[in-house]
Design a protein that fits this description.
The chain is of the alpha+beta class and 85 residues long. It contains 2 helices and 4 strands; from the N terminus they run βββαβα. Strands 1-2-3-4 form a 4-stranded mixed β-sheet, with helices on one face. The N and C termini lie far apart (42 Å).
């Protein structure tokens, strides 16, 4: 969890989940709020090799785009059917 506290409480923050996908380190952002550019800087400082990824919509998407993130397409959720007995 990342957070920056201001006079009235936390002003910026995010939950960061780090993993490895196919040999590539990835830092996923959840529940990000505040200054997206500062959040991205904090994540990239702690995880310099990781791709920073997330799913946003509405105001969060616009904030991420303004901070230099790139939209690559809609979210796809894959569901594997359980094996039948």
């Amino acid at each position: 969890m990342l957070g920056r506290e201001g006079d009235a409480g936390f002003t910026d923050g995010a939950i960061v989940h780090c993993t490895d996908i196919g040999g590539t380190p990835v830092a996923g952002l959840w529940n990000a709020f505040g200054a997206w550019a500062d959040i991205a800087d904090a994540v990239s400082h702690r995880h310099p090799e990781a791709w920073i990824v997330g799913y946003e919509r509405g105001a969060g998407l616009y904030a991420a785009l303004a901070a230099g993130f790139t939209a690559i397409g809609p979210l796809r959720v894959w569901n594997r059917q359980p094996a039948r007995p």
